[in-house]
Amino acid sequence: MKRFKRKTTLFATALLGASIAALTLPAQAWEPTKPIEIIVPAGTGGGADQMARAVQGIITKHNLSKQSVVVINKSGGAGGEGFLDVKNSKGDDHKLIITLSNLFTTPLATGIPFSYKDLTPIAMMALDEFVLWVNASTPYQTAKDYMDAIKKAPDGQFKMGGTGSKQEDQIITVAIEKVIGKKMTYIPYKGGGAVAVQLVGGHVDSTVNNPIEAVAQWRAGSLRPLCVFDSKKLDYHEPIANGKAWDSIPTCKSAGLDVEYLMLRGFFAPPGISKEAVDYYVDLMKKVRETPEWKKLMDDGAYNQTFMSGKEYLDWVAKAEKTHEELMKSAGFLAAKSN
Amino acid sequence: MIEDIANLFHGFAVVVQPFNLVLMVIGIVLGVIVGVLPGLGGANGVAILLPLTFSMSPTSAIIMLSCIYWGALFGGAITSILFNIPGEPWSVATTFDGHPMAQQGKAGEALTAAFTSSFVGALFAVIMITLVAPLVASFALRFGPAEIFAVYFLAFCSFVGLSKEPPFKTIVSMMLGFALGAVGLDQMTGQLRLTFGFTEMLNGFDFLIAVIGLFGIGEILLTMEEGLSFKGRAAHINARVVFQTWATLPKYWLLSLRSCLIGCWMGISPAGATPASFMSYGIAKRMSKNGKNFGKGEIEGVIAPETAAHAAGTSALLPMIALGVPGSPTAAVLLGGLLIWGLQPGPLLFVEQKDFVWGLIASMYMGNIVGLLIVLTCVPLFAAILRIPFSVIAPVILVLCAIGAYTVHNSSFDVIMMVVFGILGYFMKKTSYPMAPMVLAIVLGDKAEEAFRQSLLGSGGSLGIFFSNPLVSSIMVLGLVALFWGAISTGWARLRGQAATAA
């Protein structure tokens, strides 16, 4: 009970502090006046969901906003449901959406009427890495070993497990096939965690899981990372399994597999919101990035910690969409035009 | 092993701290409320309350959240029995006999049986987790797409042919369910199916919307036609009903044990609680002497699905802890919580976070006992709800249904769909098309399809993959036996009859 009491006192102090802060703030700055919704265009438990809930937890715990934050999953139609909801909430400055690559892939693959241009960009929080994983009981020690094995086998013998269809995992798989010159069999599953377990169980031969999705199985010694699909090695030195750290994983390019792919983890807001509101959210996200909890999340998931906002961010997104369109076009993943 | 038991007792010591006990009771009560409101399931409840726990220690937080989960599991049965509205997918099978019992004025018995069976199922699963956790976790790894399809196949087979309606109507209803289940994004190709260009249909038809409409709204429409009163109204409210029902329960021990085993298996595999409840109900109907009475208010028809659903719901937490793969949507939200508290789910959690894991397991024991006590004391109260005049309670139910339907995806389109399903449900009842096969097909249809196509992708199109190893073959054979059980048993009886006349 003692603990409970202490909490009440703490809460009262925090409340007092908040009200004093409110009194001393300049009057013209935009502030949220009701709870802020964060839409997650993916299911519960995935990478985007984890990040949104971590941001919610950080804002609540450190009292970064006077209003509470609500996380809502709208995963229907490969996230199309969430994006359309935000697109149709023109001028609603209490709504944000966290994005993953389905910002580009969903409209391209399904033809639903939506583009990143319909939204107001807020900030890029991080980029998610992709790693080529195999089961630790297989003989492949390097990406080259594995590629040689695929090259020797007939088309389609090696199975790649991934999240969803015509999304980032399958795009990477197609890019790998192009480099190797052999087909693999791509098997789509619902979520990254399930994909990692299918690899542990030996039901697929490899995956391109994000670090956070497979790290637990790596630590337990059931999975082996072969290479990372980035231009440089990951910047995390803490050993994870058998004395190996994230930075012990070579880049795929150095192993002769010239494929690079990074996934956006960033925030957007509905169209037509004021500049003041955008500034408020950019500032809020900067504060979130300075907390120890955020650093812990970045460490756990071995994220690429690039931060961007404003025009720089918009330019990055525009370039990323072009890349996705080209990749998906060459893989034959574009939706048939209805007209 | 000895060490594990010492750890468990340490876990109990953590759980019985007064602060944790208070959290436990709060969690259970919130959970029951969440479970009673259709649509606002355990997953939503846990997600809404997750931020509350950020300031607590991970162990206190998981105690409170898992108690919300237990509470929701208990609560789901209440509306199924009283109003024929399953609050959760796995409560659907409970309505088949639970609601008829309520209509016969035996709501108290049905509720007591449901709660007690839930407790037995959960307890069985927790004991199993305590004793054989690492072994069981490695069993889960053997389930690839082919094995998972085989499990769904078994679930369908053990349920098909149960219906008293003509087979033709059962098939029509099931096919309609498959068609409705196919609407939305096709997971395997990333293409939209059957949405006819309407962006509202992206999501497909959520099972909960269909069930709230078909069962809940449909039932209210029927009751209105039949004279504006609940059939179970005349029931005596008897404070001793709990003990009277308990006296009759021990004779169903074999049924309970079988349902526990089915539930644990389904929870780990990880097919989940919904196929477990249907499969258990189907098998109970076949094996029971009173099989013919199933669907008319047979207590065994309440015990079987409830026991299995809760054994499955509880054992579904095991793959989450041990493998980092959530066996249910609620487990998925809990998984998100683990990461925020700085715990990494996975095979090493048992080694590195002993306090947390054994605290959680101890809270499963305590939470279920506390939960059972709370819900059982309220049985007469719940049963008394049926004495409120229909004209008062019906609008309340309608509003709750609408809120529930809205909450599933925060979409008002779903509320309209709920009404459409309600009207469909009314006409299906009037023309005696069975609704259960349709519901089963909506819930499991797309998952079974997904597993089927994943398997075929892996095998290059060969159906041989469903008989490629002993595990998958034996599940498939079980499924086929269940499907042709009727023919097999008649054939067997005839053979025996011939042998008897020959002798």
List keywords for this structure.
heterodimer, A: about 350 residues, alpha/beta, D-Maltodextrin-Binding Protein, domain 2, six-stranded mixed beta sheet, five-stranded mixed beta sheet, about 40% helix, about 20% strand, globular, disordered N terminus, B: about 500 residues, mainly alpha, two-stranded antiparallel ribbon, 23 helices, about 75% helix
Description:
The complex is a heterodimer of chains A (339) and B (503). By secondary structure, chain A is an alpha/beta fold. Chain A folds into 2 domains: 34-128 and 263-331, D-Maltodextrin-Binding Protein, domain 2 (3-Layer(aba) Sandwich); 131-248, Periplasmic binding protein-like II (D-Maltodextrin-Binding Protein, domain 2, 3-Layer(aba) Sandwich), CATH 3.40.190.10. In chain A, 42% of the residues lie in helices and 18% in strands. Chain A contains 11 helices and 13 strands. Chain A has helices at residues 2-24, 47-61, 80-87, 102-110, 143-152, 168-180, 192-200, 211-219, 275-289, 292-301, 310-331, and strands at residues 36-40, 69-73, 95-99, 120-128, 131-135, 159-163, 185-189, 206-207, 223-228, 239-241, 244-245, 263-269, 308-309. Chain A starts with a helix and ends in an 8-residue tail after the last helix. Chain B has one domain (2-502). Chain B has helices spanning 2-15, 18-36, 42-49, 58-83, 92-103, 107-140, 145-159, 167-181, 207-226, 241-248, 253-268, 273-287, 300-315, 317-323, 329-340, 349-352, 354-377, 379-384, 390-409, 412-430, 436-459, 470-483, 485-502; strands at residues 184-185, 192-193. Chain B has a two-stranded antiparallel ribbon with strand order 1-2. In chain B, strand 1 (184-185) and strand 2 form a beta hairpin. The longest helix of chain B has 34 residues, at 107-140. Chains A and B meet through helix 1, helix 2, strand 2, helix 3 and strand 7 of A and helix 2, strand 1, helix 15 and helix 21 of B.
Any idea what the radius of gyration of chain A is?
22 Å
Number of strands of chain A: 13
The CATH topology of the largest domain in chain A comes to D-Maltodextrin-Binding Protein, domain 2
Q: What structural category characterises the helix and strand content of chain B?
A: mainly alpha
Q: Helices and strands of chain A, in N-to-C order?
A: HEHEHEHEEHEHEHEHEEEEHHEH
Portion of residues in beta strands of chain B equals under 5%
Q: Characterize the overall form of chain A.
A: globular
Helicity of chain A, as a percent range: 40-55%
Largest sheet of chain B: 2 strands, antiparallel
- What's the SSE pattern of chain B? HHHHHHHHEEHHHHHHHHHHHHHHH
CATH level-two architecture of the largest domain in chain A: 3-Layer(aba) Sandwich
Low-confidence stretches of chain B: none
Q: Which stretches of chain A are low in confidence, meaning pLDDT under 50 for 5 or more residues running? A: 1-10, 15-27
N-to-C CA distance of chain B? 57 Å
Mind telling me the CATH class of the largest domain in chain A? Alpha Beta
- Read across the widest sheet of chain A, the strand sequence of neighbours is 2-1-3-12-4-13
**What share of the residues of chain A does DSSP label as strand, in percent?**
15-25%
